[in-house]
Design brief:
2 domains, 344 residues, seven-stranded mixed sheet, Rossmann fold, globular, Quinone Oxidoreductase, Chain A, domain 1, six-stranded parallel sheet
């Protein structure tokens, strides 16, 4: 079968021919219908050799959807022909955290060698993929897999980031989204669907700001120092109730801290790094900083139900598997509107 693999440190991914995998006991083989392209892929492919821990060759794709094709021994709960989405952050499945569906925070996965598809295990950018356990399959039903596969990360991640802040996002509140790209434009829609907050979007790219307008942001500003005064003006000088940073680098972290209010939430979602001063004199009183990761298994059901209601959609650009390397080139250049989706 064909697969898109990262094979050499520092080199672009390649479309190659590999053996079609067979499911072992308890496993499920999917005939892939769609796979999403993500900045996380670009992040790991940009790591130097001494920091890269995901194995080579690596079949990419941690956002996956497919048709159940073949069952390993002992599998129950799914049938050949089922259309499903893949819940990506796989855990051990037996610990207290996993029993709550919080496999993204499983404390044992790394020690047991369990990795998400496309981020250590073979991913969805192939004609077929193996899913380790049927519990990681969520029914798609009549949802179009190509239009909705990105919700497994680009929907689930912002949903999980936003949900704990819902009590603060009451009528009259202001929520700021920094970065209106693949995750951010879905986060804007989630905020509009689930809260009465006024949604402000910030980005350095005018095309992304237009996308933010198109999906429901009430205010959009360039992501620079002037944005601080704009947000303060909208909030009578008090600052935002919540800032969701889908970039997560030092400039956006500093920007977010400058526009948060007392008891506000600063949520660092983007795969970046930086540092923030904390303490009595460095942040507004009782302001919080959170760094969430992906989302809970139960939350993927909720995100897909939001899509069924029409409240959330993903702007997508579709590529064949043969053209998948081009999708990463466009991602790197910042030329995608929303998400790229690979269709084998």
């Amino acid at each position: 079968m064909k697969a898109l693999q990262y094979r050499t440190i520092g080199a672009p991914p390649e479309v190659v021919e590999i053996d079609t995998p067979e499911p072992g006991p308890g496993q499920v083989r999917l005939k892939v219908t769609a796979a999403g392209v993500c900045h996380s892929d670009a992040f790991i492919m940009g790591l130097p050799g001494d920091q890269y821990v995901y194995g080579l060759p690596l079949t990419l794709g941690h956002e996956g959807a497919g048709i159940v094709d073949k069952l390993g021994d002992g599998v129950v709960g799914v049938q050949p022909g089922d259309s499903v989405a893949v819940y990506g952050p796989w855990g051990c499945g037996t610990c207290y955290t996993c029993s709550q569906g919080k496999e993204n925070y499983c404390p044992h996965a790394a020690g047991l060698g369990i990795a998400p598809p496309g981020l250590g295990a073979p991913g969805a950018m192939a004609e077929y993929m193996i899913v380790d356990d049927p519990r990681h399959l969520v029914p798609l039903g009549d949802l179009d897999p190509v239009a909705n596969v990105s919700l497994t990360d680009a929907g689930l991640t912002p949903y999980h980031a936003i949900k704990p802040s819902l009590p603060k996002l009451v009528p009259g509140s202001v929520a700021v989204v920094i970065g209106a790209g693949g995750l951010g434009h879905v986060g804007i829609q989630i905020l509009r669907a689930m809260t009465n907050a006024t949604v402000v979007a910030l980005d350095v790219n005018e095309d992304k700001l237009q996308l933010a307008r198109d999906v429901g942001a009430q205010h959009v500003f360039l992501s620079d120092d002037d944005a601080i005064s704009e947000v303060k003006s909208l909030t009578h000088g008090l600052g935002a109730h919540a800032v969701f940073d889908f970039v997560g680098i030092q400039p956006t972290m500093t920007l977010g801290q400058a526009m948060i209010r007392a008891e506000g939430d600063q949520v660092l979602v983007g795969v970046g790094s930086g540092s923030l001063p904390v303490g009595m004199l460095d942040k507004p009183y009782e302001a919080t900083v959170r760094s969430p990761y992906w989302g809970f298994r139960s939350e993927l059901f909720e995100v897909l139900d939001l899509a069924r209601s029409g409240a959330v959609h993903v702007e997508t650009e579709v590529f064949t598997l043969d053209d998948a390397p081009e999708a990463y080139e466009k991602l790197h250049a910042g030329n995608l509107r929303g998400r790229a989706v690979i269709v084998p």
